[in-house]
Specification:
The complex is a heterodimer of chains A (about 325) and B (about 425). In chain A, about 75% of the residues lie in helices and about 5% in strands. Chain A has helices at about 5-40, 45-65, 75-100, 110-135, 145-150, 160-185, 185-195, 200-205, 210-235, 245-255, 260-285, 295-310; strands at about 140, 150-155, 160, 235. In chain A, strand 2 and strand 3 (about 160) form a beta hairpin. In chain A, helix 3 (about 75-100) crosses helix 9 (about 210-235). Chain A is globular. Chain B is mainly α and about 425 residues long. Chain B has helices at about 1-5, 10-30, 35-50, 55-75, 75-100, 110-125, 130-135, 145-165, 170-190, 215-225, 230-255, 260-270, 270-275, 280-305, 315-330, 335-365, 390-400, 410-420; strands at about 370, 375. Classes of the chains: A mainly alpha (about 325), B mainly alpha (about 425). Chains A and B meet through helix 4, helix 10 and helix 12 of A and helix 9, helix 15 and helix 17 of B.
Amino acid sequence: MDFDILIGIFPQVLLDGIILGFMYALIALGYTMVYGVLEFINFAHSEIFIIGAFVGVEILLSFKAAGWLDVLPWPLVLLIILVAGMLVSGIVAVVIERTAYRPLRHAPRLIPLISAIGVSFFLQDVIRLFESLWRNSFNLVYPTMEVLNHRFELTATIDISVKSLVVIVSALLMLWGLHSLVNRTKVGKAIRAVAEDQAAASLMGINVNRMISLTFLIGGAMGGGAGVLFGVQYSLINPYTGFIPGLKAFTAAVLGGIGNVPGAMLGGLVLGLLEAFAASYLSLLTGGAFGAEYKDIFAFSILILILIFRPKGLLGEIVRERA
Amino acid sequence: MIKEILDRPVPATVLVVALLLVTTWGVTYSPRSIVLFMMFQGSILLLYFARMPTPLKAGLTILTLGVLMPILGTINAYYMEIAIQVGIFVALALGLNIVVGLAGLLDLGYVAFFAVGAYSWAIFGSPQANLIFGGSHFPLSGWWFFVFLFVGVAVAAGAGILLGLPVLRLHGDYLALVTLGFGEVIRVLANNLDKPINFTNGPKGITPINRPPIFFAPLLQWLGIDPDPNVIYPLYLYGLVLLIVGATVLANRRLEDSHIGRAWEAIREDQTAAQAMGVPLVRMKLLAFACGASFAGTVGVLFSAKQIFINPESFTFMESIGVLAMIILGGMGSIPGAILGAAVVTILNLQILKGLSLWLNELRNAGTVIFGYNLTNLPTQLEPAKYERMIFGLILVLMMIFRPQGILPAKRRHRELEEER
């Protein structure tokens, strides 16, 4: 085995893993926050995520058509698509909660989950329908922005592109913003109270329904932001792209301890790193017998192992059994 | 008014028989009319609802499915294809019905067992196995197909237990996610196990897969009938599907009323209480997984023989959700519900959406103008047949919100919901 190659690609793989990890962390927040307040897996979150990516690409394409893409300063363009993606995704998440989940809040546990799966499937084809009518194509590519593809060479073997830096910085800003919102503001306190005990929270004068909507708004916005960053980083999107990252982000949320906000961030990073290393090292270590295509299996195996041996995750509290 | 007629045996029988005959005649008269074929299907549904003596009903059902349907199938081969597909999905839905409907374990990776069954025959019924074991003993002759129907049961049940053992301690939504992951794992394996040893031939799939021989062929020759293989073979497959569906329904009904079925329902309603009453949780859940999986395994074997060609594309997550949508539409835990759900969803997919697509294409090519909008401008990506997910999704959400017990709820469950009111 060529040891030098293994060492040589290490920093690059680490970097890829961190980017992927931040992406997962941002998506995982949506799962974990909703689980925290409602104890239910918002299966449609992967579509909320990809809607953000589609909002981003639509704005970029129309800017390009109008010739603004070269005129406007690129940080402003990025800011616009990020904010727009977050806004739209957040609103979609709230609307989904109002229409498909709220009527089922007191139903047996599997019922809202099935409804959520339905919403997820429905949204995938709604996006497809919309894009088919609007652009006659549902596989969209983010327009290239020259500045973003510029690469800094750190050493002879490692380089980092501007867009990777952008992704990391925006992800950090979003995570920091969320952390402050949940832990430092009154609203954040109210959300935590609802997650702790809905009945008691409502007795304390907290509007539980509004807090649940707010949770969906924030979680959705994080997902939408992640979607935009996903598009900027990986360029190619279609309505079904969100599914696998969504599933993995859910794995990340479980890994970190579902319902736990810092846990989701940690879980996302750990999973991203594991996956990046699995993808690059698996084929090197097995002499090409098993390649990067097994990285998905890797993620699911992790999910199964955690659920069996440590269902509360890395940072989580013990999950209560609810009949 | 229709309900009043259906409640009285004589008018009901007359109505149903008349409808069946008229629609059959209609289809023979105009083979390409989807509407007429749908009316034929509708009259089968009326037959189910009609109140008449059981032997008469059974006789009419056998007559309809065993004689009228094959006649229609020879007139328009596509109808036979639809009937076979409906049968395959009915058997799948009945299998999933055990896991989800009776035992209350949400399995989102059900198609994995279907895949396991399909690949087990595909590998040995085609030259593929030579690549694994060397030599040239394969493909096995078509007669082995009948053995593999049972091998499919065993392999899929084994896979069910394999999945069940580690994950059955999980409850509710976690279980759902893990089964989903399992389904994806099987698909990824099927996609990538073309190296280091070529088991599945990867995304290119396996072909040609041997088909079961027509065992009564010598009899036909003796009778002096020389059938066109393109006509007789679908009929033969249809017969096999009917047999398997019949066996599945029978097994389901026997299971439902056995102590095992009652234990499953107890687990579904309240796991803790069931355990306190002495229901062995792990064994019963494993049994549910294995039973559900074994149906999928058999159907998988049949499916691979029918298709001659299989690849991982046929075993995606969407198929799992499709089957789930079928039993939720029909009513969880209800056998007639699962059958109805499977039929409705399959017909919707294969017949209505496809028909709509063709129709839209014709309009587009003809350049028809509707409300001043020229349809040639319609985007080419707009194909109703491609929007299965939207249909599945809508079914799931709407059923959950408005009628969680399904169209034809299980009797026991129906009573429970009545009491709660």
